[in-house]
Amino acid sequence: MDFILRNARRVGAEHELTDIGIVGGRVAAIEPRLAAEGETIDLAGRLVSPGFVETHIHLDKSCILDRVRSQKGDLDEAIAEAAKAKRGFTPDDVHARASRTLEKAILQGTTHMRTHLEVDPGVGLRSLEGVLPLIREYAWAIDLQICVFPQEGLLNNPGTDELLVQGLEGGCRAIGGAPYVDSNPQGQIDRIFELARDYDIDIDFHLDFGPTAEGMTLDYVCRRTEEFQYGGRVAIGHVTRATSLAMAEFDAMAKRLADAGVALTVLPSTDLYLMGRHHTHDHNVTRGVVPAHKLLRHGVNCSLSSNNILNPFTPFGDCSQIRMANFYANICQVGTQADMRECFNMVTRRPAEMMRLNDYGLEVGKSADLAVLDSQSPEMAVAELTPVLYTFKRGRKTVSRQAPTLLRPQ
Known about the structure:
CATH architecture of the largest domain: Alpha-Beta Barrel
Helix content: 25-40%
CATH class of the largest domain: Alpha Beta
Number of domains: 2
Distance between the termini: 41 Å
């Protein structure tokens, strides 16, 4: 064996200790007391999981707090401030900031990522030029997929369509949109579906991002998903407007998503930070975070993700998916063990399904993309915010962290 993880607790079978053997970058054996030799780590009963999956993050506009203002802290200000900052982006600048953020994610046990990149006449393809080399440069630690999208509108922003096409021609493997900023939201959705079909790529929309339920386009996305026979290949993010729905309407929305095969990504940190600011001081404030664990019960696939890091949309963040799962559990008042496990699933197995990662999972024959957590179960890993001690990418150790030690008096 190239590597053996001994005395591990495997997600899904935490009640027993087992050994995990790795050969040629793949999981070769999972069995107790594995009779094999090779470089060995004794995990002493710690949890081994497939690596974390980040489906919705913006590497291009991360780490720009020093060049923006965030006084009102609402969505309109964040879009405007980011748009002004983008005009000064250069490929080298984007590359440096994106690298810093990507390394944070790697250190937190993330092995797969979809980053959303803005293209428009203001920034051109400079962000793409800065991030595209990272796919190759960091392939030793993470699989990086680029999703291009028009943050400032498509039909109302001449020249953006051509830039999206250039991005897709340049190797981007997903396309997104932000219909809520377009002069013709449904027209933007139609065009995104057409491009996805033409290039045989997946879709990942920013959708229904606002404080109230009026004007939601979710049903239209579901309808187009069915008409294009794209079930299982469409994801939507944010959908904060749904938090204002009555529960009967929320349940109907869940059924609609499940029937159409549209997945949903919740961005707890950004959504909680930006939403509810329209209320005056004498009203309750909307949480703005969709209760994804309730959607799961209706058959909707959901994930949790970081979205923005250190910018006007979210002026904090350390790229920890286990922290995002814990944060979500607090916001949405998750308390049952089953729902806590689903919080863990929404940063591992479920986003992998959303991105159609067929080689993902802790199974014999799969790529050895693994994270070792200082915990004994997924539920407690979420509850206690346990650190990642090791990460493996294709069987190679990419991250090592010492567990903290109490220095007791002698």
